Structures are given as structure tokens and as C-alpha cells.
Amino acid sequence: MEILACRRPVLVSILKNRKFIKRCHTFSHNQQRSMSHIMQRRMDRNPLFKINNPQLSRHFAIMRVISSVLKLRYLVLGSAVGGGVSVSRKYQEWKDSLPDLSWLEDVFPNNNIANTIQTSLKSILDTVQNIDFAKIVEDISPIITKAATPNSKDYKQKLEISQQEIIEIQLRYQKELEKLEKENKELRKILLLAKNHKMNMRKVKKSLIDMYSELLDELNDYDSNYQTQDHLPRVIVIGDQSSGKTSVLEMIAQARIFPRGAGEMMTRAPVKVTLSEGPYHVAQFKDSAREFDLTKESELAELRKEVEARMKNTVSRGNSVSNEVISMTVRGPGLQRMVLVDLPGIISSVTQGMAPDTRECIRQMSTAYMSNPNAIILCIQDGSVDAERSNVTDLVSQIDPHGRRTILVLTKVDLAEKNMANAERVNKILSGSLFPMKALGYFAVITGKGNQNDSIDSIKEYEENFFRNSKLFRESIGISSQLTTRNLSMAVSDCFWKMVRETVEQQADSFKATRYNLETEWKNNFPRYLELDRDELFEKARGEVLNEVVNLSLVSVKDWEEKLSAELWNGISHYIIENVYLPAGYSVNQTNSTASFNTMVDIKLKQWAEEQLPRKSINIGWVVLKDMFKTMFEENQNQKLQASDEILETLKMAVIDEALKRHSWEDKALEMLRVIQLNTLEDRCIKDKHNWDQAAQFLTSTLENNLKVTDGLLKEMVGPSNYEKWFYWQSSTAEQTKRNNIKYELENLLHSNPNHSNLLSKDEQITISNNLKQKNGTPCELDDIWQTWYLVYRRHYFKIALENAQNIKKHFYHYQESNGLQNEYYDIEMFWRITRMIKVTANVLRQQITNRELRRLHKELKEVLDEYSQNIEMKCKLLTGRRVTLVEELNKVKQIQEKLEDFIQALNKEK
Description:
Layout: H1 2-5, H2 8-25, H3 35-45, H4 47-51, H5 54-69, H6 71-97, H7 103-107, H8 111-129, H9 133-147, H10 155-193, H11 208-222, E1 235-239, H12 245-253, E2 271-276, E3 282-285, E4 292-293, H13 297-314, E5 326-331, E6 338-342, H14 358-370, E7 376-382, H15 392-399, E8 406-411, H16 413-418, H17 423-431, E9 441-444, H18 456-469, H19 471-474, H20 485-525, H21 534-552, H22 557-591, H23 595-611, H24 613-639, H25 649-662, H26 668-682, H27 689-718, H28 722-728, H29 734-752, H30 762-776, H31 782-807, H32 812-817, H33 826-870, H34 872-878, H35 882-910
Parallel strand pairs: 1-6, 1-7, 2-5, 7-8, 8-9
Antiparallel strand pairs: 2-6, 3-4, 3-5
């Protein structure tokens, strides 16, 4: 409204309009003079006028004659003509005084308001401008002419007609002027409502009570227990259940805004109600933009349902009451500005359906709110029951024993009179001599007529009539100011603002000291860091996490394919050796035919490539992507250890883990990979020596690794060797000794027949068992022989295969001359196929990662970050430590201090 204040000439002109309109309705003193007197006065002042204007002299004589005949009529007609001239002149002056309204477009970015105001002003101007004052004179002139003929036969009849016509003209223009005044009021209303327009781009000054309410919300979040910081006043409405506590608040708010129940506890959570004056009677929740029109019963019902639903939502499972505050604002004409907190009613016992600790929870909640040393306690006492049955008065007396901030309100006094209550006893309550509890003031009110559907206006009328005619209060002297909710609300408002003015400066000083202490702690403990709160730290972590994906895209092709190839072989090597190579190699020893090797390998590889290999490869690609991402992230963090922020590490790792957990490989890549792998495995021809050397090296290293693993397993089975026993003081168990003896017999068998198959005949098993029994005197189970034979023969096979592989390294040219028709190179061909399949698969996976998966991973990281940014609990869990909480406390204190200073400044201006 500050901007509108600088445009006061508009409002002043509009308000002056009312005076201008009034002049159009009444006859001024100057307009009541006769035209002859006016002309005579002009001639007396200017002699030349009389001498040099003979024509005007004749006109003047005629006018004197007419005046003598129709003097009274000229009083009326002259007023009409003079009024028309005055209206015309006044309209022109008012129109010229109107300023340029183009500034409205800057004040109201929403063109609807500016257009409405301009349209209203234009309508007013058009209405006045359309009044043709010349036409008025023209319409009246024939009447004057007619009326000026006293010798006409129907003189009286014409005179009556003339008078009627004058009245009709006056009525017609009276309607126009009334329309003008109505539009003038509408314009003023628009200007007043523009004060609260929320879409204004400029900062609109808030009302004093709204500033104070927001300040209380900030303090409630900062210190809900009123232990260290929040000592600002608010009105705490407290009373026994069904004592009329909520009804008192509704009478002050002048609307039925709370749900009701017949004896049932309806208030289950604190409700903070901010009362302020406004053009419309509306209610609005703190966290909602919707306004409820309190003049409409349908919206009142919706408001009560919303309050009830919010109360139920605040109550956790198994509890009956909650400490979570429901904040709402009620605006309306004539409302006293204050902040009230409605608390659940004090109960004597817990009924069925309530939590067992409900009574104690309500008392603790009430005590906590009243413990604020500057809270005004509005203690509600049911006047229709015995005072000795009150629970609330004892509780209030304990918190405020001297009654320096307590106001006692006696409700339902009409029922007290109906029940023939002792007038003297009621007067004692209002004088403060009945209760041991002391108070600042004592009031008697009526908040209902027995029907919860009664309107506030009807209750107020009933209340005034009751106290005016009541026998109970008629003879009481000096207590009229203690009666009715109107007097109560005015007294509470006065007390509220008095305490606000007394305490707000002290509260501001307290926060200055708190801010100084927090800033000192930050400088001493975290001098190298910026003051970033949890949200700012999260945004910093967001940028660093997304940058890691960019860094991942910079990994070279060579690094990707080497990592993928290594992981692919690690993932499939067990299947290749155990399910393809060894079964095919064993078949060669059994059949003495190398052709069976290629046949078995072809069958097994094709079946494997169609069913398991593509899915296995994709899983390996996903694992490589995950490991590469985490490895690069950790390496970057180690390199930037001095510049990095360790408080963000937990958050970044959690985001990365969650994104990788959600990430899955594209399904359409599976079929494409299957076709490529099948085609690659079908080609067994080695075309150049480089590939031959690679395959031979791959075969040799694979056999060496498997031989080493087999030796380790066999050594674990048979125990330490004689060398280890003598030099390392190791010993064998009985089981290991038995297995060592079996191993010795099996090795002798293979030594005698190096080309032995992988199977033992029945006779060979019996022979070995008998030999062991004869030599050692201990029986040997066939299962023990089979288990030992598996490792012994496996090692034997790997040794022979390794010797062959080392021998054929130099046979490429012999292989090339035979065009690959020599069957003795079957194993190197197989490993060439595996090598080429791994290389091609690694290339395909690398392209999929760099072209598709990194972009999808980047998108998933952003989604996780967006979800976490909205999850306050997750941010609090992942961003912890004194550094974070200290910044939040400091920012909160700064924000509250600024609001306190703004409020103090506005409060001083109001004074």
C-alpha cells in the first residue's frame, strides 16, 4: 500500500466527489438568489454596463416583471440552472485534477486489477461527461417560457405541468448521480483490496499482526519448549473439557470455525489462530492458499471438516492428542488483532478409546504453553457448574500464582441464572474473591443458546439482551465492563499488545546475543569453510556427483575394453574350462579321436551362446560400469583430498549407490549381442600369426592358472610334503595321510599309462584299495579314491595340455600351410574363438556404455538427487555433523532477528 499512498490525489479527488455529488443534490445559498438580484448587482458594480448596454436594460426590465410574477418558481428554476453550471464547472475541475493512471500498470503486474481500476474511473468520467448540462438548460427553457405567461387561460395547469417536468428532470439526473457515487465506492473498494494482492511483484507491506504471527511460527519451530528463546506473548486459551473454551475463541473470531462434539473431545492438537482486520470475513491455513468465506455456511462446514482432518492427521497411531500446531488466520471487519492458541481441554479421567496417557499429555502440553513467561492465559471456567469442580484453576494457579498474566472468563452464565445460582457467588467470582487463583481481570460471557447451529450474530444479540435484563447481574454495580465477549476481546487485545510492546525489545536483544555466540563458534571451529546450510551443501554435492558421470565418459576406449575383457573372462572362465574344454579334452583321451573335440565344442558353445552368454555378458558389463564409476570417484576424491569437502562423501556415495541400484541395461541390446556372439564363435580359422600368438598365450596362461589352482587343492587334501614337514615343522592329519597314500597309488597308475582316460575301471579301484590295505593296514573307501582321482587326473591333464600348448606356439606356419585341417591344433582354435568372442563382446559393451548407458545413468542420478532434495529426512541422515546444524541454527537466528527488527520498526511506526 506504500505505492498507493503516494497516489493520494486520486483518492482525495474521489472522496471529494462525494461533496461534489452532494452539491448536485441540494440547492446552495448562492443558487437561491433570484436572477433579477444578480443582474441588478452587476449593474450597480459597473455603471458602464447600464449605460452602454440598452438591450440588456430592456432584458433586465423583462426579468423584473417575470420575477414579480413567478418569484418562487425562479427560485427553483434558477437553482436548477445554477446547479447545472456549478456541476459542469466542478466536473471540469475534478477531471483536470485526476493524475495520470499509467502508474497502475507498474504497481499491478496483473493487468486485471489495473484494467479494473482504469475501467471504473473511465466509467465514472463517462457517466459525468454524459450529463449534458446544456440539454438541462434547454429542457428547462420552454418551461420558463410557458411559466412566464401569466395571462394564459390554463395558467395553473401549465404551472403544475412545469413543476412536474422539473421534478422528473431532477429524478433522472439524481439516478445518474447515484450511479456515479456507487461506482466511486466500487473503485475505492478495489484500491483497498489491491493491498492484499499476492501477485504484486513489489513487496507489499504486511499488517502488524501478520508479521507477529509469522514471527511466532518461526520461534515455535526454533524453540517449541519455550526454554531458551521464545518468550513472546500469545493468548493461551485453556479450560476444562466442554467448559466453552472453543466457543469463546469462536465468539472472538466471530465465526464457527471449529468442529463440535456432544461432550466428546474434539480439540486434539494446538490451533494457533491469528485474528486481524480485513475487508472480508475469511479464514486461511498457513500452508494453504485457499481462503474460506466465513459468511457462507457451506464454506464454514468445509473449514470445520478441514480442521478436523488436520487434527486427525497430526495424531500418531495409538495417541489421542498431538503437539503439532495447526496455524490459521482469520480476517474480518471489526476483529481485534491478536494471536490465540486453542489447547485441548483438561480432563479428569481417561475414557474408553483414549490412549492411557492422554490426561497427562494434555496437562504437560498446557503447562509447556503456559510456561512461556509472557503468555496471556485465558482461563475458561464453566459458570453453570460448581466452582469446586474446576480442574483448570489449580493448574493455572501453579503456573501463574500472582495472576499477572491470567484472565478468568466465566461462561454459560445464562444457565447459572436458570439454575437459580447465587448472585452473590457469581459476583464474588467476577470480583476475584471466590477462587484462590488471582487474575488480571474477570469476565462473564455467553457463547451459545443451546444449539450448536446458532449463528454468531444471534448469540451476540442474545448475550446483550441477557446482560441487559438479567436479574443476576442487574444489581451488580461497576461490572458492566466485565460482561460480553465484545468487552472481553477488547480487554484481551489491549493486554496482548501491551505485553508485546514490553517484551519484544528484550526478545530481540536475546537473539542478538545468541547470534554473536553462534558466529563466534563458527569462526573458531570452521574458519576455512563457507556458511552453507544443508540445502546449499546438497546442491554442491549434486554438481560434484553429476560431474563424475562426465569424467566417466572421458575414460579411453582401451581402458574400457581391457576392463571389460578381463571381467568377461573371469565371469565365463569356469564354464569354459569345466563345461566345454575339459569334457571335450577327456573325450579325446577316451576315443583317441580329435574330431570329437571340435564337435563337442561346437555344440556346447552354440547352446551356451544362445541361452546364457548374452545375459551373462550384460551382467558383467553392468558390473564393470558400476566398478569403474566407483573406482574413478574414489580416485578423484583422493586426488582432491585437500580441496574436497568430506562432509559430502556419505551423501555422494549414497546417491551413486542408489542410482546404480536402479540402473538396468537396455533390453534391446540383448538380442543384438546374441547374434554377434553366435557369428563370432562360428569362425575357428586363425588368419595371422599375431592372432595365433594371442590365442597360444591365452591358452598357456589359462592352463597355468588352472594347474596352479589344482595343485593348491591337491596339496590341501594330502597335507604338507616331506620337505615342509622337516623344515617348517608341519604335520599331516590321519585323513591327509590316507589321501596322500591314495595319491601315490594313483600317480603310479598314470605313470604306467600317461594316456589313461579320466575314468577308473572297477578292477583298478579294487586293486588300489587292496594295495593300500596291504601296505598301510587301513581300509580305503571307493569315494575317497574317486575324490583324490579327480584332482590327480586333472593335474595330470593340465600338465600334458600345457606342454602341448608350449610346443605349438611356433607351429603357425605349419597350421597355415595345412589350411587348418590338422586336428592337433584343436585346443588353440577353441581358445582363439573364445578370445575373439571376448574381444568383440567387450567392444559391443563398451559402445553400449558410452553411447547409451552413461546417459541413462546420468538421468537416473538426477532423478535420485531430485528425490533426495525433497526428502528432508534423507538429507538430515546423509548430511550430519555440528557444521551443518550450526549453520542452520545461525541462519534461523538471523532470520528471526530480521523479523524481530522489522516488527519492532513497524510497531514503533504504529505508535
